[in-house]
Amino acid sequence: MAGKVYLIGGGPGDPELLTLKAHRLLAQADVVLYDRLVGDRIIALIPPTAEALYVGKARSKHSLPQADINTLLCAKAKEGKQVVRLKGGDPFIFGRGGEEIEELVEAGVSFEVVPGVTAAAGCAAYAGIPLTHRDYAQSVRFVTGHLKDGSTDLPWEELVYPAQTLVIYMGLTGLAETAIKLMEHGMRATMPVAVVEKGTTPEQRVFTATIADINDVVLANNVVSPSLLIIGDVVELRDRLAWFSKESLVKKV
Ligand code: SAH
Predict the structure, then answer these.
(1) Orientation angle between helical segments 66-78 and 97-107, nearest 10 degrees
(2) Annotated catalytic residue: which of 4, 21, 30, 35?
């Protein structure tokens, strides 16, 4: 049988957020290459018969450079193996899926991309924050706080657009600067922000604050990566919706 690479989105952490397709392909894999964002409970689903290779990718301490990962994927597929490249969230959202595919195309290796639940969708749902809402946000924008060259230069004017929810991936390190830039470009200091740490896992923590004081809250609570920032009026719905669900629970008892 010819080898093939499956670029699979494993979702943000909860194994039940894997798609049926991801689950099936994982069970059939000969080789699985996974990175740091793939949760322990998903790694536990890698069959014992498969060769499981950790390829790292903590910010600025890559355990295997991207070029070596690409080469390894091609080499394993050319040995006739069913290779799963397991990624956190969705492979095409800040997941370098495009870069890995380019190399596979050049090498003539067949592949398939399996979408996953991206952190924005998973964290928002598990934190009780609707990313859009007809009264508060007609659009949602995903940005990364960490560019390839390490800078955080973002189109600030566009990010303070009204009725827009902003989701920042990899935004923890540059948070102090991001908050200042957003306010400098017109975001009101009282704009609600949520930070979701280790979203959808049993260790999930959610903190809410305003854009003016979110960085202090993050520091005071030792918030660590992976964490996602959700900025916008929709964040306020969290308290209302949480109150509602608690209230309805009480009524049921
Ligand atoms: N491809 C991934 C994103 C990779 S970039 C996806 O679609 O979700 C890595 C960033 O994603 C992290 O720095 C963090 O901002 C976010 N992230 C991924 N998993 C997360 C989780 N379980 N909780 C909070 N943020 C998460």
Answers:
(1) 40
(2) 35
Among candidate residues 202, 191, 196, the one with its CA nearest the CA of residue 218: 196
Report H helices in the chain.
20-27, 40-43, 66-78, 97-107, 119-127, 156-159, 175-184, 214-220, 237-252
Tell me if 105 sits within 8 A of 215, measured CB to CB.
Answer: no
Model's pTM, two decimal places?
0.92
Same domain assignment for residues 187 and 127: yes
| Tokens 């809410």 sit on residue | 208
pLDDT band at 153 (very low <50, low <70, confident <90, very high): confident
Same domain, 207 and 165: yes
* C-alpha to C-alpha distance for 53 and 32, rounded to whole angstroms: 6
* Residue 144 lies in domain: 119-249
Q: pLDDT for 28-48, tens place per residue?
A: 999 999 988 898 999 999 999
Quick one: 126 and 242 in the same domain? Answer: yes
| Terminal-to-terminal C-alpha distance of the chain | 58
Q: Catalytic residue at 239?
A: no
How many domains are contained in the chain? 2
Atom 13 of ligand 1, nearest CA residue? 170
